[in-house]
Amino acid sequence: MTCMAAAGAATPAVADSVPVGVPLDAVKTTLGVDTPRVATAVPVPVVGAPEVPVHHTGDLLPSPLLPSMPITTQLGSTLVGTPVPNLLGDPKTDGEGSLESPATDVLARTPGAVVGAPLTMPDGSNYGMPNLTTPKLGLTAPELIGAPSALLGLR
Questions:
Q1: Are 76 and 105 within 8 A, CB to CB?
Q2: CB atoms within 10 A of CB 125
Q3: Do the beta carbons of residue 70 and residue 48 sit within 8 Å?
């Protein structure tokens, strides 16, 4: 049985992050204390296309043999606000503290593998036969790129 989408039907959008509100109302009701407000977003990682291996002159295998995979996501906006009672010892100085972190894009790359063949390219001085050589083996370094920041405030 096949399923056909209706013409003009909307396709689901891919979200960078999913907003989440942390429910702390039950703590306030049960304990009778003011609770912080917390709102954040859960990142949704998106895997990109692997880098294309490149064939270099004189090498039998492409480099890197196992390409690294890019993974992008967005650390969502986070806001934490909490009441600060009797800031200076006087109920008139009640305030609110806040910690806010704006949304930030993050890029990560998995490590890749670089492998060299134990043979050289065909050698004309050896009747076209390849020579033996020491094989290469290595890993490319993983990467994590982003610039998260936070703002601390008191009102």
A1: no
A2: 7
A3: yes
d(CA 114, CA 138): 5
**Measured distance CA(104)–CA(153) in Å, rounded:** 19
Burial class (CB in 10 A: 0-12, 13-18, 19+), 109: buried
pLDDT for position 97: 85
pLDDT in tens, 45-79: 889 988 888 887 777 788 888 889 999 988 888 88
Mean pLDDT of 145-152: 90
C-alpha torsion 108→152→100→46, nearest 10: 0
Instruction: DSSP for 99-140, please give it.
Output: EEE--EEEEEE---EEE--SB-S--GGGTTPPPB-PPPEEEP
When mean pLDDT is compared across 57-61, 81-85, 128-132, the lowest value belongs to 57-61
Instruction: Give the pairing type, strands 95-101 and 104-109.
Output: unpaired
User: What is the C-alpha to C-alpha distance for residues 19 and 17, in angstroms, rounded to an integer?
Assistant: 6
pTM: 0.62
- Separation between Cα atoms, residue 40 and residue 43, nearest integer Å: 10
